[in-house]
Input
Amino acid sequence: MSESVTTENLLDNLSTAVLVLDEKLQVQYANHAALAVFERSLSLLIGCSFNQLIVASTLDFVRFQNTMQYGEVYSDSEVTLTFADGRQTQTDISVTYILENQAKRFLIEIRLIEQQKKISQENQQWAQQQAARELVRGLAHEIKNPLGGIRGAAQLLEKQLPSADLKEFTQVIVEQSDRLTNLVDRLLGPNLRPSFEWNSVHQMLEKVCTLVQLDPSHNIVITRDYDPSIPELYLDQDMLQQATLNIVRNSVQALLECPEVAGEIKIVTRIERQVIIHGQCFPLCVKIQIIDNGPGIPDELKSTLFYPMVTSKQDGSGLGLSISQTLIAHHRGKIEVDSWPNRTEFTLYLPIDKKESKQ
Ligand SMILES: Nc1ncnc2c1ncn2[C@@H]1O[C@H](COP(=O)(O)OP(=O)(O)OP(=O)(O)O)[C@@H](O)[C@H]1O
Ligand SMILES: [Mg+2]
Output
């Protein structure tokens, strides 16, 4: 091999994570992609037992161990790995047994398949959600038009009623019309024109935290992990606050359902490079994560989560996430979700514009 291409350099530039384990399944080597998969530095990874890094998986451990006994190569696709911090990811994995200077080793290759799947799912779901939202908006509009007339007619009728007892009935019509108007207004979504200004996302997040912490009905702890280097964004403060608050409120409500766990909501901000949002690649984005340790999103809701009127709550209207998505779309951003029992992560991506482009 030419001197300019070293094996080390090649391995570190692979997109596949490569690990070498010894007989006791302790890590002896990890390439850069492996550090990213396990979210650990090299010093924290070396010597660590594979079973400590991955607390659960759909990997066939018997076949894995057999590679050593019989010198076989073992490959498996769509293996779900659960890491020590609760993260889960889908991978294709292969394990090869190698003998090096009489020492037995496992060579593990891990390829993440999540990313690819997410992008194709995202495009499909986005189209379906748009169609569902248009349908609901159309219906809401048709319901809203006669509602004003019904309410007005009931009020006129009330004035003509011969007996005060009968007012009870016209009152019901007025109250229920108001309730429906309220609902269709939410279905129609925000009708104010966005007013964009350069502002800090952290200031917006702090407002959300204050609002949630002021609520005396819970003692959920909110922790922040902000990246102070994030620049100001061209945003509508009220819209973003509403979008984030809907997500944080859902976390609070989910945590209240399981009082046996000490509820925690973590808000993390980072800069993310090369993010694809609805088919367009943005070089720089702010990533805002809202993570709770609640029960997780019910499986049956996952595929339709952002549709209007999808709810698991008795008094829920199922509009919170649909509204959040519309508001984030006004900022050319997107929302992603990952959820398992004890960990639900909502991730918002918002493109970072250069200031001169908006002046
Ligand atoms: N952090 C979370 N943990 C568990 N389930 C969640 C979480 N966030 C959302 N969900 C589920 O997603 C459903 C839809 O949420 P959404 O905010 O759209 O509506 P809702 O909260 O039911 O009603 P609304 O927000 O209109 O009052 C919820 O009913 C809940 O089942
Ligand atoms: Mg909600």
The chain has a mean pLDDT of 88. Residues 246, 249-250, 320 surround magnesium ion (ligand 2) (CB under 6 Å).
